[in-house]
């Protein structure tokens, strides 16, 4: 028989995880949509965010500062990465792009391991958010509730930036036809740099806010990368709504399957991905032409 | 390099493998390290065929590596299977079968999607190994107690139970693996895999079932992975769960890229660098885990600057030192001499199973193509007689390219049907249509640019000789019956015999255009569709090409889309004029020139001003 | 006073397909120049080279005295050249208004939105529609409006009337005439020769990548048979 409080709790976990995945995957998908590059270092960006936030928190004791400083740090890493290395790969075959982002991901992970060691580091939740909150029929960790709220706000901010600001308009136009954007007087290389920075920041931000839940370690990015890929395949490459939808679906699949048997959560994710591949090859909300 | 000097490479490999135990220990290599290098090297041969030759970057090979390894280890440790070699083979078969099904899923997409799917596959296998199947796999403990192999020779039994005897065992299997790998790469299948990497569109258009070949490459990689996985268990006397990790896949990719993809030996070189450095850093420099950071940086630097890895870099260095003697290309000095195609060298088109058909060669009935609300082609009825040379012209926006794409089965019509020698080909795919005798040459050159003209024609001729798919992995490519004749005849027809072994990148534009037509000719078409064959040509090259087309037209039906009016009026027997998606007029060149409707269409008199 | 646009012997390639052979032409201030030729002649390649999408392998392009042959498209746009491409390339996922605003973002001086609406009333009605939901004629209008917003010194039009119903062509032509009369310098590539010649002051004829003739439009209007050999069959 189903343990209802447990089930609802897992649904909530799925929502939290889903929102996180949606945020991270949005970053990956706008980078791919605009630049055409699949960033295999995206999981490492998530990991870097966690560490940057933790370092900032350790020095300042302020969660807000940690959030801001950490996010900006990862954004900077993304911008430098694009400017120094990725830019030279636009004309090269896709495989080379995959190899270089993969290699950069390894370099980031190993650099962190060099400075911080391999062991996972638990990160405390900020004091006001510690403990559990009664939600009527069940209790739920306060931080996770806050996390859900924070991530949803971040997604909304990302949405507003993309759909209500001029920068967002340029990015959306760039996803569609970056050469034409250039012909309208906007240096599209600068757009690429910005998009890469924003995409990395999305992952880094997620890494910071998620740190108190799962602890930070150099290898946390790997699992995230895989889940992000599945989300993007399900939702459709280059689509922000697709990333959100795919994220929620993936989050719930992982969460609910974990209730029955944690080992099968990945299998179920994979089954879902295969189903989408067979029935809707371009993802639920994706469009043909992006390969 | 791999194709020309037969057996030298195999001999050198054997020599190297035999000499290694005497040389490498003095450089700091322990026997265990050498054995590990061989395991990774063998793992990499299959991966290199998949990635280096076919261009499919898979991050999921650990799934097959682990499958083969754990099946073998399970048989040996939990089921008292007696023969180690037998267990290894069964493990390989298991990995091959699993690889087939995994490939079916992963290869539904290409490029980036394919890479993403393989990453997901690696993770899924790891989790399944770790949890649901942990009673078979030992979960996080793996399967200990894998025995060492032994060979019963009747009079005596050889036990491979010491470091060096294990080396002999491993080196033997590596040698076998390399020999088979070289065979595969030198076979027709190997050539086609390279062509798929170079230009999958054209490989399909000349008649190959590229999906089946890609799956073949995937399965081959799985087989090598499975066997190597089994060897790992034997080597360590223990099958570790981290065989399934994504990190294992990543290590394979990095080693192959470092050593040099597309060389078969790249993974071995890469593994040597990797394992040696890791030993060196950990034991000599006592820098612990930093070696992976250093390797990561080395890897990124190599990908940026030394694109073909260490072996590629050495090759380039060798060429540079040799003074680049053979690099001078005649094309840079003077325009290529006019070679009027020799009429006698044109052979009639060959087709197997040809029943004589008396109707039109190509017929379209009611052909319509809609894109949303836009009608590109409207109810076109079109018919070309056998042996005719038909031109298709029309002002911009007439729908010519859409029409042409439907005729070549590259695009499905919204309605209407197409008949080739009386046979309905509307729903037939490009590769199959090519096999039936209908081929196209492209307006923008679609060549296999990493190959020479001869190698290009070979790819097309292989489809003509062997059909859409043939699994002749172990056949030597020069043993395909009739291949050489077909290739030489085609090269002669397009006057490229003298330049047949110059890399395509060094050909003049006109020569490339001729090769473009040659690729289509090599498939022995009875109907040839030519899309703007004169595009981008100088007046001089145009004259040459018109002569060539007249030559080719003998014994074949030709349909040519062109904008060069002088040329098309000289060539064509009949001309079809398309305008605004429908046929405006049809007739002899003289009739078309006199037709005032056609003149108006071109001069825009139809639109109100 | 030198011409606004001076093109001197450019050679353009697609890959190694030689499309333009020593093409030279000039456009004076306030002129409308037509570039005529059959398709495949290299007209679109010429415009793409001017806009920086294709880098010429040799030759020079001077826009108001500044060499542009090695510049990227955004720099050329900033110098005052604007292209309305053959396939229009409006941003289908953006609204009409967003398309127009985007175009003006980086311009030193731009048309106020009201001026766009009064020149193209149809677009005002559809200002919130997604670009992909517009009809062919409306998309063409949007593409032209987008280019005009930036107040370009020279407007390049690539086959603006292709695929449009005659009545829409008539409207667009009238709009173009008004712009030309107001002093807008235009270079137009168009297969609809009658329409092109009704706008143009001068015409160049391009054949297989070579400029073979340059004539005043008036002469061509009076003696259309001159064109038959080059453009007809």
Explain what this protein looks like in three dimensions.
The complex is a heterotrimer of chains A (291), B (609) and C (233). Chain A has one domain (4-279): ABC transporter involved in vitamin B12 uptake, BtuC, CATH 1.10.3470. Chain A has helices spanning 4-35, 42-60, 63-84, 94-116, 142-164, 166-183, 188-214, 220-235, 240-260, 265-279; strands spanning 132-134, 139-141. Chain A contains ten helices and two strands. Chain A has 291 residues and is mostly helical. Chain A is globular, with a radius of gyration of 19 Å. Chain B is of the alpha/beta class. Among the domains of chain B are: 31-161 and 197-244, no CATH class; 269-322, no CATH class; 357-428 and 528-541 and 559-609, 3-Layer(aba) Sandwich (Rossmann fold), CATH 3.40.50. Chain B is elongated, with a radius of gyration of 29 Å. Mean pLDDT of chain B is 86; it is low at 326-350 and 605-609. Chain C is α/β, with parallel strands linked by helices. Chain C has a domain at 80-191: Rossmann fold (3-Layer(aba) Sandwich), CATH 3.40.50.300. Chain C is built from ten helices and ten strands. A six-stranded mixed sheet of chain C has the order 6-7-8-3-9-10, with helices on both faces. A four-stranded antiparallel sheet of chain C has the order 2-1-4-5, covered by helices on one side. The longest helix of chain C has 16 residues, at 166-181. The model of chain C has no long low-confidence stretch (mean pLDDT 90). At the A-B interface, helix 4, helix 8 and helix 10 of A face helix 5, helix 11 and helix 13 of B.
């Amino acid at each position: 028989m189903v343990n209802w409080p447990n089930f609802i709790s897992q649904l909530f976990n799925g929502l939290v995880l889903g929102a996180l995945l949606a945020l991270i995957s949005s970053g990956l998908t706008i980078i791919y949509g605009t630049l055409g590059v699949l960033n295999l270092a995206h999981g490492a960006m998530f990991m870097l965010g966690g560490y940057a936030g933790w370092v900032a928190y350790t020095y300042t004791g302020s969660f807000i500062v940690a959030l801001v400083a950490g996010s900006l740090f990862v954004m900077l890493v993304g911008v430098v990465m694009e400017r120094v290395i990725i830019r030279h790969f636009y004309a090269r075959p896709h495989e080379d792009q995959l190899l270089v982002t993969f290699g950069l991901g390894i370099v980031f992970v190993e650099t962190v391991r060099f400075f911080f060691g391999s062991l996972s580091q638990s990160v405390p939740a900020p004091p006001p958010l510690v403990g559990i909150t009664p939600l009527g029929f069940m209790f739920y960790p306060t931080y996770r509730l806050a996390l859900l709220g924070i991530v949803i706000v971040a997604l909304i901010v990302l949405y507003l930036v993309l759909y209500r600001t001029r920068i967002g308009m340029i990015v959306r136009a760039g996803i569609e036809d970056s050469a034409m954007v250039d012909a309208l007087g906007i240096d599209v290389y600068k757009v690429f740099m910005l998009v890469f920075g924003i995409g990395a920041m999305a992952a880094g931000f997620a890494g910071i806010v998620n740190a108190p839940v799962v602890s930070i370690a150099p290898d946390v990015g790997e699992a995230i990368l895989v889940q992000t890929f599945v989300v993007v395949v399900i939702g459709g490459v280059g689509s922000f709504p697709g990333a959100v939808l795919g994220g929620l679906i993936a989050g719930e699949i992982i969460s609910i399957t974990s209730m029955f048997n944690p080992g099968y959560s990945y299998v179920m994710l994979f089954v879902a991905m295969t189903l989408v591949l067979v029935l809707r090859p371009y993802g639920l909300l994706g469009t043909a032409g992006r390969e | 390099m791999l194709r020309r000097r037969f057996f030298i490479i195999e001999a050198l490999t054997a020599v190297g493998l035999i000499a290694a135990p005497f040389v490498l220990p003095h450089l700091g290599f322990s026997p265990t390290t050498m054995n590990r290098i061989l395991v990774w090297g063998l793992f990499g041969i299959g991966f290199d065929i998949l990635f280096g030759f076919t261009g499919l970057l898979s991050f999921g090979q650990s799934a097959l590596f682990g499958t083969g390894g754990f099946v073998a280890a399970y048989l040996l440790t939990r089921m008292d299977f007696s023969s180690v070699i037998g267990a290894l083979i069964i493990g390989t078969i298991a990995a091959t079968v699993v690889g087939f099904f995994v490939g079916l899923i992963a290869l539904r997409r290409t490029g980036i999607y394919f890479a993403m799917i393989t990453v997901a596959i690696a993770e899924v296998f790891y989790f399944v190994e770790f949890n649901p199947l942990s009673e078979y796999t030992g979960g996080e403990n793996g399967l200990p107690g894998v025995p060492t192999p032994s060979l019963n020779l009747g009079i005596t039994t050889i036990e491979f139970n010491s470091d060096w005897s294990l080396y002999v065992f491993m080196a033997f299997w590596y040698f076998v693996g390399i020999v088979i790998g070289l065979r595969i790469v030198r076979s027709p299948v190997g050539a086609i895999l390279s062509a798929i990497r170079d230009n999958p569109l054209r490989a399909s258009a000349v008649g190959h079932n590229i999906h089946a070949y890609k799956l073949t490459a995937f399965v081959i990689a799985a087989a090598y992975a499975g066997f190597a996985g089994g060897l790992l268990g034997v080597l360590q006397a223990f099958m570790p769960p981290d065989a399934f990790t994504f990190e294992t896949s990543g290590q394979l990719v990095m080693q192959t890229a470092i050593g040099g993809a597309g060389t078969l030996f790249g993974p071995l070189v890469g593994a040597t660098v990797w394992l040696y450095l890791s030993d060196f850093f950990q034991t000599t420099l006592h820098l612990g885990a930093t070696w992976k950071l250093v390797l990561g940086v080395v890897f990124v630097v190599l990908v940026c600057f030394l694109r073909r890895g260490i072996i590629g870099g050495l090759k380039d260095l060798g060429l540079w030192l040799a003074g680049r003697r053979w690099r001078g290309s005649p094309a840079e000095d003077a325009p290529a001499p006019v070679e009027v195609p020799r009429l006698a060298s044109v052979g009639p088109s060959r087709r197997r199973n040809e029943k004589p058909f008396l109707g039109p060669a190509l017929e379209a009935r009611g052909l319509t193509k809609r894109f949303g609300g836009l009608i590109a082609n409207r109810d076109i009825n079109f018919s070309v007689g056998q042996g005719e040379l038909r031109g298709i012209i029309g002002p911009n926006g007439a729908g010519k390219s859409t029409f042409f794409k439907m005729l070549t089965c590259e695009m499905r019509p919204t309605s209407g049907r197409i008949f080739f020698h009386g046979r309905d080909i509307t729903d037939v795919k490009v590769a199959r249509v090519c096999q039936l005798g209908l081929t196209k040459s492209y307006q923008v050159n679609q060549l296999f640019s990493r190959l020479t003209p001869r190698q290009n024609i070979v790819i097309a001729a292989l489809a003509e000789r062997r059909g859409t798919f043939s699994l002749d992995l172990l056949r030597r490519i020069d043993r395909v019956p009739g291949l050489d004749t077909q290739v030489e005849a085609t090269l002669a027809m397009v006057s490229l015999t003298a330049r047949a072994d110059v890399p395509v990148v060094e050909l003049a534009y006109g020569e490339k255009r001729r090769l473009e037509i040659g690729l289509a000719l090599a498939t022995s078409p009875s109907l040839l569709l030519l899309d703007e064959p004169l595009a981008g040509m100088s007046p001089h090259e145009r004259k040459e090409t018109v002569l060539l087309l007249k030559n080719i037209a003998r014994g074949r039906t030709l349909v040519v889309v062109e904008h060069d009016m002088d040329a098309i009026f000289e060539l064509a027997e009949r001309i079809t004029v398309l305008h605004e998606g429908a046929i405006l007029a049809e007739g002899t060149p003289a009739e078309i020139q006199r037709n005032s409707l056609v003149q108006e269409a071109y001069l825009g008199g139809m639109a109100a001003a | 006073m030198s011409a606004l646009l001076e093109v001197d012997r450019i050679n353009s390639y697609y890959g190694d397909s030689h499309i333009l052979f020593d093409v030279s032409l000039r456009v004076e201030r306030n002129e409308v120049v037509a570039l005529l030729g059959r398709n495949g002649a290299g007209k679109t390649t010429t415009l793409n080279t001017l806009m920086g999408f294709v880098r010429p392998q040799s030759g020079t392009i001077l826009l108001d005295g500044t060499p542009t042959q090695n510049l990227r498209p955004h720099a050329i746009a900033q110098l005052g050249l604007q292209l309305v491409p053959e396939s229009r390339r409006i941003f289908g996922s953006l609204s009409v208004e967003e398309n127009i605003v985007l175009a003006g973002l980086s311009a030193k001086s731009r048309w106020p939105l009201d001026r766009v609406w009064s020149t193209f009333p149809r677009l005002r009605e559809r200002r919130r529609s997604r670009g992909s939901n517009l009809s062919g004629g409306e998309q063409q209008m949007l593409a032209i409006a987008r280019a005009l917003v930036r107040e370009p010194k020279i407007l390049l039009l690539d086959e603006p009337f292709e695929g449009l119903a005659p009545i829409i062509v008539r409207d667009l032509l009238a709009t173009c005439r008004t712009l030309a009369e107001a002093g807008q310098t235009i270079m137009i590539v168009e297969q609809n020769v009658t329409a092109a010649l009704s706008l143009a002051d001068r015409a160049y004829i391009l054949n297989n990548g070579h400029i073979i003739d340059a004539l005043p439009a008036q002469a061509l209007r009076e003696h259309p048979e001159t064109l038959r050999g080059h453009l007809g069959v």
